[in-house]
Amino acid sequence: MLTRVKTAVASLMGGVMAAGSSGDHPSGPDLPLRFPYSRPEFLGLSADEVECSADHVARPILILKESKRLPWSTGYAEVINAGKSTLNEDQACCEVLKLKMRPLESSTPNRTPTARRRSSLPNGEGISPRESDGSEDLTFHYWALFDGHAGSGAAVMASRLLHHHIALHLQEVMEILCAPNLLPPTCLDDEPVNHLLSATSHRALSRATSLRGAAGAPGSPSTQPTRFFTEKKVSQESLVIGAIENAFKDMDMQIEKEKASFNISGGCTALMVACLQGKLYVGNAGDSRAIIVRAGEVIPMSAEFTPESERQRLQFLAYMQPHLLGNEFTHLEFPRRVQRKEVGKRMLYRDFTMSGWWVYTTVSSSSVGNLTRELGEEDLVADSLFPVCLQVKVYPLSQYEHGADDVLILGTDGLWDVLSNQEVAEAVTTFLANCDPDDQHRYTMAAQDLVMRARGELKDRGWRISNDRLGSGDDISVYIIPLMYGNKQN
What is the pTM of this model? Predict the structure, then answer.
């Protein structure tokens, strides 16, 4: 049951069946694979090394062979699970993407944004952002972790494609992002965006500008009685967040579409970080986690999406607008499925406002049968919850001077299942304090040490960590990203 819940609550629709992986249930066994199983490209592993890394007894910790393979001297380490699945279902990706301003003709309304994005996806039919020729107008750094459930396929696919979706959505608003003194226009005319911005390059778009031509607005052809408009302030930061959110949706839609052509199954969580124009954008869909450690202070940078949070969301929806759930669910949850013989009796319950259980309520006939069901974990299994659960947090990187020990730590749930935020922060801070500040390998060694602490040592009673606690038997993947290098980029 727990596996089904984790698969659903942070699913990236579908996945790619990894050959020979136990636990994968192909939806189309006769269809070709979209991407083969592999470990992160930046590890530079041979086929033999990938095979050796899948030892569930020894559980070797993999680290970078060359620190220059990742930007900012980023540290990375991973370890396979203790036998839960044949393959390591975690995946990681790190890229530096360079975007160029779109040509004027590509911004015309005659070609839809979706068509422009699809033509540039890395499917062998277009040019990826990094391969575009011409001047480089915008650069962003990208790190991501994906934790697969019920197979490694979705994690592999998302690690290959999600950053391209993000880059292509950012290109849609590049003209605005590259003009910091301009506010995003509320409404665009038939003119291309490039032309609009060039015509207003020396002044910000005022409210009157964005409303020009509206009935009753200043300068309109026929002035009608004065009307008042409420206009929300739209920041450039919110455009980046929107680009990330829409990229996640596109990733979801692409996998769903390709199910018809490829052998796809499984799901995954997603945790990504993009550094753009002096800010870190941390997007999370699932139970992975990110924290910043700055001068010893722990700053949480992700909101986890769990069965409990999704339960409350769905129960609230069942309470406010039950028709959206087909009038099939009640907003109350009972400890177990209600039986017909229990109608009229009093049973423990909770609703969307509660995390604990409350006294008793009388069970009505509407809580029994298939027409109206109480919400339990089995009801969280849905086709797609990935776009719904994404949350993006922003950290103003350029506003702080960071030291060599100030880091952003990303980890899949295998790390956080056994170590708290404070334990992780203290472990990394203590390790870095004993390293040469000029040693570029210090962050990789810190990541290795952190994974080792969470995995523990194999003893008679299983994997054990400090104080003889159970170690993590799950896949563990960790990035340690030094923030001082980010200051040098801005």
Answer: 0.74
